Amino acid sequence: MTTWLVTGASRGIGREIVEQLLTRGDTVAATLRRPEQLAELGERYPDQLHTYMLDVTDTPQIESVLDKAFTALGRIDVLVSNAGSGIFAVAEDLTDAQIEQSLATNLTGSIQFARRAVPHLRAQGGGTLVQMSSMGGHITFPAFSLYHAAKWGVEGFFQTLATEIAPFGIRTVLVEPGMVRSTFFDSAERVAVSEPYRGGPADLAPVPVETMPGSPSGLAHAIIETAVSADPPLRLLLNSDGYANVIEALEQRLADLRPQRESAAAADAEYPA
């Protein structure tokens, strides 16, 4: 039996992961801002499910919840950092408050959660830290700049963190899904496009959720199986669109950069010569 902690467990992928884990017979510490949303699961799995109220933008609360969960469960084998939110808006149309809130949830919250989790994992001799990222950590779409800023930041932070904590037996996995038929898109905030941008690249109709290729249950299953595997990859690229879009973006980036070899080297010399 494996013991897990999953943030953002109220709905979507987080909820799906929790339900599959409970069905497997595992023990789960689930965090969410409104624990009563998992009341029904708690009644069905009273000995397996432990719920904690957590807003990942509250760093002291992150520390407190992790202390409580590790104390109560003794050991947590896998932590899944899943909490997040989306906002669709042209960059110019965003308010300062929207920027601060989005980055606090999707970037800073993930960083602070990982930082507070590492001492517990090190003390118990290892474990696995799973961070939900996205194909949006490699590619971009108009009107989604804040989400991309957070996910590109998460990618850089966790790639660095992985090298720092590997000697302690702590494994890290960045999960990079494509578009998934979940509640994420329906619950995302949408800011009306202002006049200068109407009719432009950012003035697009929302993609119907039912047309998205990714299955929530398939995604959750892949995450679980990878997290408990003997040698999980640093990056777990999932869904057909995720694979196609990320590979195309990386190949295009290389194609753009390779012709710059000589000009890059020329900047090594002092100027003027």
TrEMBL record:
SUPFAM superfamilies: NAD(P)-binding Rossmann-fold domains. Transmembrane segments: none annotated. InterPro entries: NAD(P)-bd_dom_sf, SDR_fam, SDR_oxidoreductase. Gene3D superfamilies: NAD(P)-binding Rossmann-like Domain. Pfam families: adh_short. Keywords: Oxidoreductase. Belongs to the short-chain dehydrogenases/reductases (SDR) family. This is SDR family oxidoreductase. It comes from Pseudonocardia nematodicida.
